[in-house]
């Protein structure tokens, strides 16, 4: 059984996916962590985002492992835990360019499709491209201002600066981010986190919930 939760940046995907997964007693999978990990490694190695070959060689030479824990995902490269470095402003700013590369998308898709069911998968194209046959699909939205205020509070940053960066990342991600035609779209703006998790759980087909 697969439930997909896609949406724009900071719309609540990982918090909602985690809450839904806990309620169902299954793991959740953050596809963005793999894009972020690839970006971190590219930045560390000084690789240009326009050239996928050296990055793919690096990813295949020292494979990454996504650990889909219910409370929060982790990404490992051998014994090194990459997770603490995945949410810096530097990775935020570079990730869309890396995620645009078809070779990197194929690598992420392959990693995700190898994971054992059941799980809740969150990202941008889980319901459209990676798991089109998912049992239930959701797409989360909220205004840039609401999302910026939430993320600024989480990171202790200025809401105006965060909002500008979110709008720019939405623009760069537009090509790889769209609701599946059969996804239920939820505006999380007027809802609490618990409210969104409840709405998702209430909309699951009987055999899934
Ligand atoms: N409906 C909501 N109401 C209030 N805060 C929320 C809601 N959904 C998410 N948040 C908060 O917004 C922030 C961003 O959520 P997150 O799950 O990281 O989003 P995403 O995975 O889409 O980037 C977190 O601090 C989270 O607790
Ligand atoms: N399925 C996915 C997931 C993420 N991504 C890319 O990875 C970036 C980081 O994703 P994320 O889900 O961790 O980001 P947030 O929305 O949590 O800020 C996005 O801005 C996209 O560029 C993607 O292209 N496709």
TrEMBL record:
It catalyses: dCMP + ATP = dCDP + ADP; CMP + ATP = CDP + ADP. Its EC number is 2.7.4.25. It holds the Pfam family Cytidylate_kin. Keywords: ATP-binding, Cytoplasm, Kinase, Nucleotide-binding, Transferase. ATP binds at residues 7-15. Residues 3-203 form the Cytidylate kinase domain. One of its GO terms (molecular function) is kinase activity. It is found in: Cytoplasm. Its main location: cytoplasm. NCBIfam families: cmk. Belongs to the cytidylate kinase family. Type 1 subfamily. This is Cytidylate kinase. It comes from Deinococcus aetherius. The gene is cmk.
